[in-house]
From TrEMBL:
Species: Sphingomonas corticis
UniProt-annotated location(s): Bacterial flagellum basal body; Cell membrane
Sorted UniProt keywords: Bacterial flagellum, Cell membrane, Cell projection, Chemotaxis, Cilium, Flagellar rotation, Flagellum, Membrane
The organism's place on the tree of life at top rank: Bacteria
Protein name, per record: Flagellar motor switch protein FliM
PANTHER family assigned to the protein according to its UniProt record, in alphabetical order: FLAGELLAR MOTOR SWITCH PROTEIN FLIM, YOP PROTEINS TRANSLOCATION PROTEIN Q
Pfam families: FliM, FliMN_C
InterPro entries: CheC-like_sf, Flag_FliM, FliN-like_C, SpoA-like_sf
Protein task: FliM is one of three proteins (FliG, FliN, FliM) that forms the rotor-mounted switch complex (C ring), located at the base of the basal body. This complex interacts with the CheY and CheZ chemotaxis proteins, in addition to contacting components of the motor that determine the direction of flagellar rotation.
Domain Flagellar motor switch protein FliN-like C-terminal: 243-308
Membrane topology: Peripheral membrane protein
Membrane spanning residue stretches: none
Similarity field: Belongs to the FliM family.
Amino acid sequence: MVNAPETAESPAPERRASARAEAVAASGVLGAPKLHPFGDLHALQHLSARAARGVRATFEGLLRKECRAWAEPLEVVRLGDYRAGRAELLTAWTSLGMDGRPVLCVVDGALLLVLLDLFFGGSGDEPATLPREFSPAAEALAERFGTGIAQALETAWEPLARAAFSVGRCESNAANVNGADAEDVVVVTRFGVARGEAKPVFVDVLYPVATLKPHATELTGKVVAKPVEVEPEWRTALTRAAMTVRMPVRSVLAEPVVSLQRLMALKPGDVIPIDFGNDVPVKVGASLLGSGTVGTSNGKAAIRLTKLEGFEA
C-alpha cells in the first residue's frame, strides 16, 4: 500500500534492487557492444533529478498528502530484457511522445489500482488479487498520471532543449504499445516516491536511444542550468552587511636594518635612527591603499592621504 507503514518483517529500502541487474552488468562487459552514444549520461541523470520534483507534485495531487521523491541511477537495457524483468505482473504502459518520438511511462498495476482506490475516496488498500487487465477508470487514471509525468519531464528538459511531451493510450500489454520493439535499447529513469515512513513506490520512464539521438550533442555536453535571478532585497541586504565589515588600516613609517651583532647588544636608551620621505605607504591588510603625509589631527598622530592607488591583487 502507498500509505502503509513499514513493518519489522518487511523493511522497505529507500532504493529498490533492480530485477534487471544481470542485463545491466552484461552491457558493461569488456568487448560487449556499446548500447548508447551518450557517454556517462550525467546530463540525463541531472534532468531526472530535476524531473523528480514534478513527479512528487503528481503523486501529491493524487494522494493529497506530502511526499518525497528522488531519481534512481540510470540503467541502459534492451526493452525485451526490461519486460522480462517484470515477469507477468500487471503493468500500466503509457505512451509519452517526445516531439513525436516514443517514450514510455511504466507503473506497477498494483500501484495504479491503489491510486485509483484513493482517488475515489477509498483507503488505498492493495487488491488481494490483481485483475488480468485494467478497467476503463484505471486506464483513464493512468493517462491522467501520464499527463503529470509529461509535464514534469517537459519542465526538466527546458534548460537543455525545448521538447514537447504528449500523452497517449495506456496498455496492459507492452506488445500493444506503438513504437516499442523488444530489440530497442532504452535508458531507464526510475523515480522513487515515499510518504513519511511508508514503503516507497517506483515509476519508470523509458527513453529509447533512437528518441534521444536528436539531442546527443546536448546530452554529451556540460550541464548548464538556468542562471538564478538574485532577489534585489537580498542583494541590498548583503551589500549593507558587507559595508559594516571593519578593515585594518596601517602605515609603516620606516623599516631600518641593523646587524645581528648590534641587535644582540641593544639596551634601554639606545637610539635606532630611521629615515622616511614626505609620503608614507598606507595599507589595508596586505594591499596598498595609497600614500600620505604624517601629521597630527585633534592632538593625535594622523596621516593625510595624498594619493590613492586602489587595491592590488
